[in-house]
Amino acid sequence: MGKDLKARVGESLKQAMKDKDAVRLSTLRLINAAIKDTEIAVRSATPGDAEPQPLSDDKVLAILGKMVKQRQESARVYEEGGRLELAEQERGEIEIIEEFMPAKLSAEAQAAAVDKAIAETGADSLRDMGKVMAALKAKYAGQMDFGEVGPLVRAKLG
What we know:
It contains 7 helices and no strands. By secondary structure, it is mostly helical. The chain starts with a helix and ends with a helix. About 20% of the residues are buried.
C-alpha cells in the first residue's frame, strides 16, 4: 500500500479541493473528522501527556467500515421512505469511502478464512466463537462483513 490510510485520505481531500468536487470533498472531510475524533478519544483515554500516536490502518479501516454500515442503513431507511435521491447520495458516499478499503473477500475466501481462524485458535465449541471472531477481525478488518460471517462461524462450531 505504501502510504498509510490517513495520509491517503488527506491527499485525496486536497485533490478534491483542487478539482472542486463538492460531494467527494464533503465525504472525505467526514472521514477525516471521524479519524480525528477517534484519535482524540484514544489520546484522552491514555493517562499522562504521552505523545499522541497516529491511528493504525486497522483502526482507520474499522472507522471506514462503521461509516459504510451507517450509510447502508441510512440508504435503506431513505428507500423505505420513498426518498430515492437521499438513498442515492448515501450510496455515492459509500463508493467514496470504499475506495480506501481493501476489496471484500468472496464467499469461498471467507469460508476458508473462517476455517483457518478456527484451526489457529483451536476452537472446538460455540464458547470459542468470540476467540474466532476476534482473530478474524484482527486479520480481515474491512475485508468481510462480520454480520454475515458470524452465522458461518456459529454453524461450523455448533
